Amino acid sequence: MSDLTRRQAVKLGIGSLAALGTSHAKPAPATRSFLTSAADFEDVSRGNPKPHTLTGDALVRAGLTPETWKLEIQADEATNAIVTQKAQIGKAVTLDYPALLELGKKHRVMFLKAMQCLNIATPLGQGLWEGVPLRDVLRLCGDMTNVRRIYFWGFHNEDPKQRFQSSLSYTQVMETAPGELPVFLAYKLNGEPISLERGGPVRMVVPWAHGFKSIKWLQQIRLTNDYQTNDTYAEKNNDPESHLKTAAYLDDVAVSGKDARVSGLAISGLSGLSHVETWLRPAGPELADNDPAWAAAEWKRSELDQPPDWRSVLPAGVSPRDILGFDRSSGKPLSWPLRYSMVGFSTTLSGLRPGKYEVRARTVDLNGFAQPEPRSIQKSGKNGIQVRRFEVK
Ligand SMILES: Nc1nc2c(c(=O)[nH]1)N[C@H]1C(S)=C(S)[C@@H](COP(=O)(O)O)O[C@H]1N2
Ligand SMILES: [Mo]
């Protein structure tokens, strides 16, 4: 349940986590900005050298400038004892950056998404992502036969061992349930071209998934008849088909006199977010999962931040009416909190007696299930109930 240290992160093979070693417990901000600026996202990137550290010619050779970027879409014709028929597509396609932007004129989608690593108990950031649905890109390949899955990966220093790849089923890509959100190839973050560090020029964005499906520096797509995941994240015991978890993440508690302000961020995952609750008790030793105190806990509702003034939050020229998850005519969110985004919560505990305390926070989803129910394995997303300790003098 404790947050991840840099050493643990390295052991788990998570990636760079450059900033996380020092900033995993976030101070309670006086005001929290709804969107995270591209540079303030926590970075989770593999590679040696990391693709976003390349410059000059190396960057050009890597095809990571808007002028040199290309996406190759091909059939993967491999067969085996179970996959007996090979995938076939009308034609292989190579798409460049201007062609993708051109597709965007007709098909563009915009969407607010929290980026969250399956392995890290802190949200990485929240952005307004803009791009073209993957299904509209794949249509360029014409008719497809025997395609059951889409594999994709990014630039990886031309060293196959560094490849970071992910996959989706054909159905997930081509069909979107009402109210659900399509997978898309993003070329803008917060109204700007996607920075190299955030995976630009083009990054996959999989709305319902943890970060590892949202492949950065995207350059390759394969259409295959293989029905199995090939995700790099299936290694190290992770569940490669897990959905984003509904969960609360705590800031450090801010104590002022006899008052304690408890705050944090709640992610609305696949099961949605009804509300957040907090539980205050005198500080004690670590609570085991089977401690009777859990059953007697008094959980109290916390306040969720209300929708912000969208005009002041969104990049210039972006209307909420154009963002998926918002009503086309009123420009209001269809639900609050928004699907797959995060929202601040807070509670002020007033008039506390001097002493040491611990406070926990949990979400309740739209099924009425309290976090972490249905009880998940930690390798399907870090949604353990967090605790913060503080003292009132
Ligand atoms: N090409 C590539 N894409 C990648 C990764 C990577 O190492 N290489 N890391 C993934 C993981 S595990 C996460 S959590 C997110 C993090 O996105 P961010 O660095 O923009 O916060 O990127 C994903 N996309
Ligand atoms: Mo991740």
TrEMBL record:
Oxidoreductase molybdopterin-binding domain segment(s): 65-229
What are its GO biological-process terms?
A: sulfur compound metabolic process
> A GO molecular function for this record?
heme binding
Q: Which residues cross the membrane?
A: none
Q: Which InterPro entries match?
A: Mopterin_OxRdtase_euk, OxRdtase_Mopterin-bd_dom, OxRdtase_Mopterin-bd_sf, TAT_signal
What is the protein name stated in its UniProt record? Oxidoreductase molybdopterin-binding domain-containing protein
